Amino acid sequence: MHITNEDLYERREMKMRKKINSTFSCTTCKEIVSIKTHTFYYLIAEYLTGPLDNSGRFCSINCVFKLLDSLNIDVDKIIEEHNKTLDILNEYDKGYE
Fold first, then answer.
1. Which of 1, 13, 18, 33 is deepest in the core (most CB within 10 A)?
2. C-alpha angle 7/13/16, rounded to 5°?
3. What is the pLDDT of residues 60-94, one digit of tens each?
4. How far apart are alpha carbons 61 and 86 in whole angstroms?
5. Which superkingdom is the protein from (predicted)?
């Protein structure tokens, strides 16, 4: 299965948080995020980017990509290499069918 930019983050619903009245500030822009102000919050999919020291919760997709960019993480290269590896594995599997 090929990946896209959308696979680099997880979108979660604010209403599903355990502490319904909790708030947090966005890691990138420091905006206060709560169930009253945001329907969703976002996390970086670290299984694709590798572990990040300053990863956290984000108010928007834009803030996710701003952080990745500030850490010099080449999103396009991650996607390209992952998809290239999958293509190689798929070709390899075809040889055994």
1. 33
2. 130
3. 999 999 999 998 989 999 899 999 999 999 888 87
4. 26
5. Bacteria
Residue 20, CA distances (Å) to 3, 15, 36, 58, 69 in order: 32, 7, 10, 17, 31
Tokens of 31: 């905006």
Partners of residue 58 on adjacent β-strands: 42
Across the range 5-22, mean pLDDT stands at 81
Q: State whether the Cα torsion 71-29-58-76 is positive or negative.
A: negative
Residue 69, token pair as written in the block: 């960019």
Overall residue count recorded for the chain in this entry: 97
Taking a C-beta distance cutoff of 8 angstroms, is the pair 17, 35 a contact? yes
Q: pTM higher than 0.90 for the full model? A: no
CA 88 to chain centroid, in Å, comes to 25
